[in-house]
Amino acid sequence: QVQLVESGGGLVQAGGSLRLSCAASASIFSFYYMHWYRQAPGKQRDLVASISKIGTTHYADSVKGRFTISRDNAKNMVYLQMNSLKPEDTAVYYCNGNDFWGQGTQVTVSS
Description:
Layout: E1 4-7, E2 10-13, E3 18-24, E4 33-39, E5 45-52, E6 57-59, E7 67-72, E8 77-82, E9 91-97, E10 100-101, E11 105-110
Parallel strand pairs: 2-11
Antiparallel strand pairs: 1-3, 3-8, 4-5, 4-9, 5-6, 7-8, 9-10, 9-11
């Protein structure tokens, strides 16, 4: 069993930046992909970004060019750097890997 704990969320003005972190309780080296998802109130949970264990990345069209996902397998950490934030980025952000989920961290972007 692996626990994932997200942190780094908060309230930021439009155009600002946040860096989310996901700490795993055990090695994530064997998790081929790690993901960040987000869920806005009343909406489904959507995939935001993914990163393979060798560093290949994929992004939702809505965040391309603004968000950057990274991982540090040695530290069992996954990150999401979010720049040029927009009000529509407001959501709870979740870390995911191998069917394990974190509890989420709230990101609120004010206009």
